[in-house]
Design goal:
By secondary structure, the chain is mostly helical. It is about 65% helix and about 0% strand. The protein is elongated, with a radius of gyration of 17 Å.
Length: about 180
């Protein structure tokens, strides 16, 4: 039995870690299939390995943003965050409207890491999301972008926001205490 098919998730995760250190794009299918592993830690390690492959797998990962499994979409957005691939901006902007809040959250975080100004207005729209963690991620990403209209939207958010985690992020951004993503 191959290590990646072991019943022990620790062995599966460690085998992905070891393969990922080689940064060999020929291992892409192993990492892509591991995004469907039942173990969260294995999926996380596959995400790190995919992000480490960089440019050769960007299109593969972008295509996963429309996968039927929200966990795969979440991990795809997370991998793109690690890659900071500019061509993933538009697909990540579309992911801000995903039905699953986890995916919207990670897409917002990814857009802040990538640092593309085209994401500012879509991120500002996320300040009205039902989920406070999505709103918080949008606030922090707008802060990284430093977009003036986005900062004005954060100021307006502070007037109506009730969740402390969002308010704390907004105060940090408005105080200029957030390092720029650029």
């Amino acid at each position: 039995m191959q290590a990646r098919q072991s019943p022990d998730p620790h062995i599966r995760r460690y085998s992905l870690y070891l393969l990922g250190r080689a940064h060999d794009p020929r291992d892409r299918e192993i990492f892509l299939s591991a995004l469907r592993d039942p173990d969260k830690g294995v999926r996380a390690q596959a995400t790190v390995a995919l992000a480490g492959l960089g440019e050769p797998v960007v299109d593969d990962i972008i295509s996963l943003l429309s996968d039927g499994d929200w966990r795969v979409r979440y991990r795809a957005a997370e991998a793109l965050k690690g890659m900071k691939a500019r061509r993933s901006v538009d697909p990540l902007i579309r992911a801000l409207s995903d039905e699953k809040d986890h995916v919207r959250y990670m897409a917002a975080k990814a857009l802040g890491e990538i640092g593309d100004d085209n994401a500012a207005a879509p991120l500002a729209a996320c300040l009205d999301d039902d989920n406070p963690y999505v709103r918080k991620a949008a606030v922090l990403s707008i802060g990284r972008l430093g977009d003036r209209a986005g900062m004005d939207a954060i100021r307006r958010l502070v007037e109506r926001e009730r969740e402390e985690i969002v308010l704390e992020a907004a105060r940090t951004v408005l105080a200029g205490s957030l390092p720029s993503g650029r």
